[in-house]
Predict the 3D structure of the following.
Amino acid sequence: MRPVLFLQFDGVDMGTADMVNREEFDFIRCINQYDFDNTDLNRYGGLLIPMSIDQYILQRNGKRIQQFLEAGGRVFHSGHIILPYLACLSEYKQLVPPKWRDFMVTQLMPHPVYEGYNASELSMNRGVAGFYSRGSNPPPVGARVITAIRNGTVPVDWEFDVGDGMLYVHAGNDLYHCSHDSKTVLHLFRNTVRYLGAE
């Protein structure tokens, strides 16, 4: 398993810290976002970017992230793209007008992140719809759309080849926190970081 860099807003929240500190995740290194400028990405195989990250930092490091991807790295980004930091990214588009049934999730293709789980089960969280996503980071031409809302017409999760690497984008809350069930959270987190660290 290749080492994975976990970029954090201001330390790791307690729920995530409990997972990261598990022995099985000893290949993950967590750093504060403000240390990212001086971090050698060549030491890592994957980069995990949660939704709370300051996108000015990502924009400032866009060229480095692009080079990381082209060299075979993998990046997983959760959240709304407000400042596109790669040429293949576009600004987030909110679902308008939203209706309750539009927030139901459709899984369009299998993917290692959802291995052993179906994304449609994330449509509701404690009886609330829309926690998974309320819009789209429009995928570039050639991207593989993995999940969608509004009857499968609005892409939410997609994967795109960049050089020898892969970019995975989820247009919503941190994917592994889209469920209130602790077993599901751990399962999705495990799948995500293993995907990032895969040879």
Notes: The longest strand covers residues 154-162. Helices lie at 14-20, 55-60, 62-70, 182-197.
